[in-house]
Amino acid sequence: xxxxxxxxxxxxxxxxxxxxxxxxxxxxxxxxxxxxxxxxxxxxxxxxxxxxxxxxxxxxxxxxxxxxxxxxxxxxxxxxxxxxxxxxxxxxxxxxxxxxxxxxxxxxxxxxxxxxxxxxxxxxxxxxxxxxxxxxxxxxxxxxxxxxxxxxxxxxxxxxxxxxxxxxxx
Amino acid sequence: xxxxxxxxxxxxxxxxxxxxxxxxxxxxxxxxxxxxxxxxxxxxxxxxxxxxxxxxxxxxxxxxxxxxxxxxxxxxxxxxxxxx
Lengths: 170, 84
What we know:
By secondary structure, chain A is α+β, with helices and mostly antiparallel strands. Chain A has five helices and eight strands. The chains are: A alpha+beta, B mainly alpha.
C-alpha cells in the first residue's frame, strides 16, 4: 500500500482501522433492508398488506429496484468509509486520515520525534469483550493531540508506537 | 338524470385523482432517481479521491464497484422511465 504524502524512504509499520465490530450497525441495517421486500411480498401473498396492493404492479417493481440500489449504495458507502478512515504509523510519523461524507477529508500528522505521551483506553462491555479502544497521542507538533478511535488491540498498538519512538531515538 | 350525472362526475373525478396521484408519483420517483445518479457519480469522484490518498490492492475493486453502482442507478432510471 501507498499513501499520498509518503516519502521514498518511509515504510508503513502499522495501518489501523476501526475494529470490525464497529461495522455491525450498517451490516445489520443492510441485512434488514435486503429482507424487507421479501417479507413484504410474503405478507402481500398472505393478504396482510392491503395498502400496498392498491399500488400498481409496475410501481411495486420499480420501488423494489430502487430499494435494492439504495441498499447497495448504503452498504458500499459504509464499507468505503470504514476502509479508508485509517491511521498510518510509519518509521517516521503518524498520519491520521479521516473522511466525512462524500468529498471531505482531513489529514493530521505528527513526527515520531514530537510525540510526548501515549495513552490508551478500553472501556465498556463490547470494547472489553472484543479488545478495542481509543489511543491518545499527545504531541509537541502543530496538532496537539491525535486520537485513534476503536482500534483493535490498543495495548499492542501502544507498545508498537513506543518501540518505533525508541528505535528512532537510537 | 341528475343522479346519472352525479355518478359520471364522481367516476371522472376519481379517474382524474387516480391519474394525478400516480403521475405525480412517477415524476417524484424519476426526479429522485435523477438525483441518485448524480450521487452515484459523486461516489466515483470520492473513490478516486480516496484511492489517491490511500492506495491499496483493493483500489481497482472500489473503482469497479463505484462504476457498477452508477450503471445500476442509470439502469433503474431507464427501467422507471419505460415501465412507469
